[in-house]
Amino acid sequence: MTDNSQSGRLALICGAGALPALLARAAGAPLICAVDGYEVEGLTPDIQFRLERLVPFLDRLHDEGVTRVAFAGGIRRPRLDPALFDPATAQLVPKILPAIQQGDDALLRAILALYEDAGFTVLGAHDIAPDLVPDAGVLGRSAPTAADERDAARAAEIVAALGAVDVGQGAVVAQGLCLAVESLPGTDAMLDFVAATGVALRPDPKGARGVLYKAPKPGQERRMDLPALGPETVRRAAAAGLAGIAWEAGGVLLLGREAVEAEAEAAGLFLWAREP
Amino acid sequence: MTDNSQSGRLALICGAGALPALLARAAGAPLICAVDGYEVEGLTPDIQFRLERLVPFLDRLHDEGVTRVAFAGGIRRPRLDPALFDPATAQLVPKILPAIQQGDDALLRAILALYEDAGFTVLGAHDIAPDLVPDAGVLGRSAPTAADERDAARAAEIVAALGAVDVGQGAVVAQGLCLAVESLPGTDAMLDFVAATGVALRPDPKGARGVLYKAPKPGQERRMDLPALGPETVRRAAAAGLAGIAWEAGGVLLLGREAVEAEAEAAGLFLWAREP
């Protein structure tokens, strides 16, 4: 929920993918911020900043009347140039380094804390565009079968186990068998892997074709880096021969809900926001 | 350890891969048994049997003077033909079906129990050929660096989490990041995936190149289906750009230890039986 009492300006900290443009549209006219050198799909940055100069950037946000920030889209772990640090940002490095070594989620929490320590309210994508995070239920016309529901439950169990060790946010299960597990290369690479390897592994050729399941990690900070599904995910799931896509309701972003639903309908895949 | 007081004949129940021939050589002249229609690499079966007629097969083993059996090599979940069951084997189906639905490890335990219930002693590969299961330590000339040791520890954590939900027995970690997780398609497919996707994902191009780690599932029945490494694994790990291979000491089979060591030495990879 957006708190209207905090009606200062919103800054979008933009990374890769379709999310920044979708959130910018939903948010009216936020300040668009991007890491120097990164392209932002469909948007022209108002401010470019370098991570080595984070503190001057935060000062600039205050100067622009920003009180709220939201993170949108993925940023690959960037290389840092020690020569570019300003003294104030250099002071923050000892806070961040242990988090980098602990894994993605710790790092994201540490970054979020830096913004909150600087006095900003950090919003999640669902605060700005609730439509991108559908409530529990089946979307569109195709529904999972009982076998698909079992495959989704098995995949959810696997993703939860992986999440507990800070790995991946997805898995593919067919007929109870785990055909693939998501790791650093991401969902699309996992689906391509299933397309290349999985067909012959399903025990019953006429049985359940399998489910892609996505969920955030247990206890994941939901204001950053929620797993996402887009039309391309649906196309690749169809190419992998799957019956449909399920995800943890409230924990996964649909990047372009209409396009996702249209692709799923064209391919005959179900879309299911599953109650965890 | 082979118990010499149980000096009845040994039957090898053979599946796919190089293990049956390696165990047959180590065991002298065991009775070679294979599922009807399956080829056994380098061996000619003495007895072929069908799973639908398991009880008559067990009776035949008794007739041949067999008191000990060992399982060697993988058997993909076979399709069963209901028309072929004999009445005694049909009685066992209700015992097996729940295990099939619980996952691989439960199924293997149930099959092992059938042999034990029929009065056979079930040996593990390490009982017959201890040389295939090396003790803790580094094999060959290359040794892991401190960064490789950290990657192996991280991968071991991931494999343990996956094993707890009965998935996979391997993972690839480089510079602390999980590049791939093993699922049904197996280790070779995982390494090919890393070769195709992983190079650009390592944050520091001059940093640690990554480790393949393999381990049995926690609590896994070690007399069946131990994870295995062979010369082909080493070749694919080298093609994936990894620094070496580590595994849980005592829990992984080396299929052809000399060939594995020779391949690793040629490619400059370390081989490390890691104390869990």
TrEMBL record, chains A, B:
Residues 136-272 form the LpxI C-terminal domain. Residues 9-132 form the LpxI N-terminal domain. Residues 1-26 form the signal peptide. Pfam families: LpxI_C, LpxI_N. GO terms for molecular function: nucleotidyltransferase activity. Keywords: Nucleotidyltransferase, Signal, Transferase. Transmembrane segments: none annotated. Coiled coil: none annotated. This is Phosphatidate cytidylyltransferase. PANTHER family: BLL4848 PROTEIN, LPXI FAMILY PROTEIN. It comes from the Bacteria.
